[in-house]
Amino acid sequence: MKKILIATTNPGKFFEIKEFLSDLPILPVSLNELKITQRAREDFPTFRKNSQHKAKFYSEISGLPAIADDGGLEIAYLHGAPGVFSRRWMNGSEDVSDQELIEFTLYKMKGVPVNKRGAQLRTVISLALPDGIVYSASAKVRGIIAEKPYYILIPGFPYRSLLYLPEIDKFYHSQEMTQKETEKYNHRKKALEKLKKIIRKQFID
User: Fold this and answer.
1) Strand order of the sheet with strand 134-145?
2) Active-site annotation holder among 23, 43, 70, 131
3) Active site residue 70
4) CATH architecture classification, 2-204
């Protein structure tokens, strides 16, 4: 069975990507399993460049095909912020808690009327092959920033406690959404579905 490295230090992302790839006859492995401690740069100006760089970086180190994700929250009222700085929005450091990010976002959006609270979570997922070829796919889910967060926090996914989807009258949150709704709205799943065609062609068919 072909191994594929899921190159993320976020446990939530690892398990979500692993779950969405579970219908393929591949063996996802983590950075921890391979004892990889090096960290790729994430200071490029776009999700795509960050994603592609990370995928190539970890593929070169491991000698395996590597999947890397980069994405974040984009708020229309704030001209697309925090964007690529989603994890480092508060003070330029990733050393902040999920709860602090939620509270900071609510502070930035305090008093903004509901018709100006539009936002989206966007992701770009890249698959890098050991020969240096990189494939990328993107997807997004749109909603609004709620005035109060959902009461359950998903570790590693702070903004899912804030993104409300008026179309289904629910938060973009695993405790709220049904399996059918997850199939329809999950942005990471939608991006991976595009990459699955490449994975099947390269390793399975």
Assistant:
1) 26-30, 2-6, 66-75, 118-128, 134-145, 163-165, 170-171
2) 70
3) yes
4) Alpha-Beta Complex (3.90)
